[in-house]
Amino acid sequence: MRRAAAFLVVLVLSGCGGDHGAAPAATTVGPSRSSLRIGVVGPLAVHTPGAVVEHGPLDRVASDALVLVSASALGPAAVAAAADGHPGTHFVLVGRSTAGHRRPNLAGLVIRADQGALLAGAVAGLVADDEGVASPRVVWVGPREPALAAAFTRGVHDTSSAVVVRSSTSNVPVACKEAAIEAVEQGAIVVGAHSGLCAAAAAAAAHDQDRVALAVTDFQLPGVAANRIALDAVRGIYYGNEDVIFGARSGAIGIRRLDPRVPASIAVRAHVAAQQLVGGGSPSG
Length: 285
Description:
- This protein is α/β, with parallel strands linked by helices.
- About 35% of the residues lie in helices and about 20% in strands.
- It has two domains: about 30-110 and about 220-250, Response regulator (Rossmann fold, 3-Layer(aba) Sandwich); about 115-220 and about 255-280, Response regulator (Rossmann fold).
- Helix 5 (about 175-185) packs parallel to helix 6 (about 195-210).
- About 50% of the residues are buried.
């Protein structure tokens, strides 16, 4: 197997790549509080000792001490507007950068997509090799994202000798679906993509042909990162004017879901690969 670059990283400072571990320079530190009120907007599971967690729309929870907002529910402009209207509340947009919308009481929580792509590629390689065919093929579908495509390819080559084909398309779902259909017709065993409607369309095409589909977001664990931010708040630590980046070392990279078409034996090896990445090694499975 070829060894992929290890991703043991340190905490982000002012939006640079890293992995959450200690308070960055822009952090606000205050007294630790018991029964801290934390608002959660969108599909995030937050369970933090010492906090009272309430789920609801942004306008209902905006006066809590900390508000965690899933990027699947609202964008940075809407959360920045809430931060302006509630200067005593700290807001965190989970899953997206707040670049262009910096506020002292607003931070972005970003989970490293390159590491998610690396793990997705490793799982794709395991699935491809399990087919037992000569020169198995894996395809990466979607808009041009060279860094993510390269990380996915490294992951595939960590676990397999499969050929990786890159099929660049627009971000329009129908284009992603058509590209996936063409790739499967040309022999692709696994279809990989980044996220959103493009990844969903590519997966639908793969599933129509009984092929495995993997998205980078399948290997990112926003709930883990959100709980770390919530625990910091209970301890009196808040973030603002920055992005806080979480990677494998924090536990925010792992298997959130696997395509049910992945064989059980390969699923076990996929979890081993995830643990290897968390430990700083290459995900050989």
